[in-house]
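Q: Predict the bound structure with magnesium ion.
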Amino acid sequence: MTETRRQTAFAGLDQPPAWPATRGRPRPQRLEASLDTLPGVGATLKRKLASLGIATVRDLLEHVPRRYESAAEEIPIAGLGGDEEVVIVGEVLNVSKRPLRGRRTLVTARVTDGTATIGATWFNQPWIADQLKPGMRVRLRGKTGRYGFDVKSYDLGDARATADFAPVYPAAEEIAAKTVRRVVEAALPHVSDYPDPLPAELRAREAMPLKRDALAVVHRPQTEDEAETGRKRLAFDELLMLQIAIAPRAAEREQTLAPSLGEAGELIVRYRTSLPFALTPYQEQAIREIDADLTRTVPMQRLLQGDVGSGKTVVALYALLRAVENGRQGALMAPTETLAEQHFLTISDLCFELGVSCGLLTNSTPKRERSAALGSDVVVGTHALIQEGVELRDLAVAVVDEQHRFGVEQRKALAAGRGPHVLHMTATPIPRTLALTIYGDLAVSEIAKPPASRKPIVTSHIGEERASEAYTRLTRLLREGRQAYVVCPLIEESETSRARAAEAEAERLQRAELREFRVGCVHGRQKAAERRATMAKFKAGELDVLVATTVIEVGVDVPNATVMIVQEADRFGLAQLHQLRGRVGRGAEQSFCVLVSRPTEELTESAQKRLDALVATTDGFELAEVDLDLRSTGQLLGTRQSGMSDLRFADLRGDRALLERARAEAGSLVTQPGPWQDEVDALVAGTDPSALA
Ligand code: ADP
Ligand code: MG
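A: Predicted complex:
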């Protein structure tokens, strides 16, 4: 960016106030001022902005555009039809609204500019229908789509805001885009109140603009480069503060004592020989890393990442047995009862063979059985395990499955005062740098590839109009003695309506397509005992088909189940479908997964991409990358659950290099007090700090 441009963009901004030497000074008042101190903001608008989480001038300034409009040619409606995004200007003739499948809506406005008339369309923005009025002049940007002119952004009335580089703010139902732009404009002079939290030499080293300049250009860029430079600065701060916030946790941990476990011995030798297979090099590597941690007196905090079916459980049990071998206890904790029960089924058999006692403790465990369970060498359970009053006599190693689903409170309780070695397992692999950011100071072990004996699951995708083909194929495989899962649609309402739908579907299939087979049903509304009995019957081969809600997502291990049909697969997320699919392909037989969706021509672009990706690969790490591309950062699996507020400026997909730089710089800032500490405090405020561990 050139000097002249900078001057235009930053015109009217004074020098920033010098940062005071002491901490804890109130943040600059004008930034914390209520929005109605801005010209043109009244009570109604204030309320609407509040619904976006914007209450102060600072909130508004930090409400950054999602993207920028670049130049698009304005053309007559008669000239439409190309592939490029264009702008049309015309008058609304009439407006209609109709529902599409899957709870989507389509709003259509007939628009004319004298050369021709076209139906301009808005998907899933039903409120637009009330804003569009016959006779209204509109400026629409978009391109020709399936139902007409597919509108990407718009101005209603005479405003001309779909300008080049116009910032596009996150969609808000009740506030017109141009209103957001106007209010932000009014707030912009206040950026001069922004102190800069970074030391000048760091800013120089990283070639970062001042924070206030960054905010100004993000809202009012002259070029795309300029906007990006500004955003990078904001993202850098965010990532840096995140790293600093995490650091003290690491230091704290260094001061907690955990039992140092001796070398692997006789029990481990017997464990290894009892396994019907050799461990893969990845499993061996993970075990070496765990062993190194266990000999230390600093509690292990390790994340074991591996795709579904990659063999994490075998490694987890290894860690638990290392505790037992040293005369102590191991505990395995799962986020749901179903999962805990599944783990128990798998692990108790192996433990029995080794002469190691194994107990299950969930909220449904009867009182009289609890103390026996708690006294076992290996205890499997839900968070009931760490509830008050429950005392594990001598816990040395805890394995936490699917840690991102584990609440902050639970994790805190687990660590409280006991300092066991902790191994977190997740079957939702994410790239290593991201893992480091999201899980903070966890060390990471990866099982990058499943055992070679495994045949990749053959996945196909068909529209529901061809669903009968899926059942024909299913019937053939069932006759050969295979078993199958049918996963019911992900309806949003409630666990109860999901349960009812699953039961109805099981009954329907039993009467129709699957009448010659034995069909069972599991869902989250069943009593634990009932669900367990059904699962056990399926595992024993007494049921051919299990109709299920997503309760079977993780943990079910039935090698003879080689077919899965997922109904309305387009409603599921990529990671979730991948998890579900992992229930098959666990034995030596070839497995199949059929994803049934709404008719393919009605699929949204991202649903189509998700389904394509699943058909193309079974590699969880690869899918995680695709998933990242399709999601916005805030939805990134794990960030929300980790208790961290969503990242607003950083894009974990594109900003990995920036993240590395922030990590490097964080190291030196942690040890000295400075103005950045206020930002760290602000970041952590409202967030339970233990979420960072
Ligand atoms: P994860 O917990 O990662 O989903 P599991 O540990 O449950 O995976 O392993 C999935 C299946 O693969 C299990 O049936 C397990 O016995 C088997 N398995 C694990 N490790 C190996 C290996 N090294 N070779 C062959 N099969 C394995
Ligand atoms: Mg497993």
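A: The mean pLDDT is 80.
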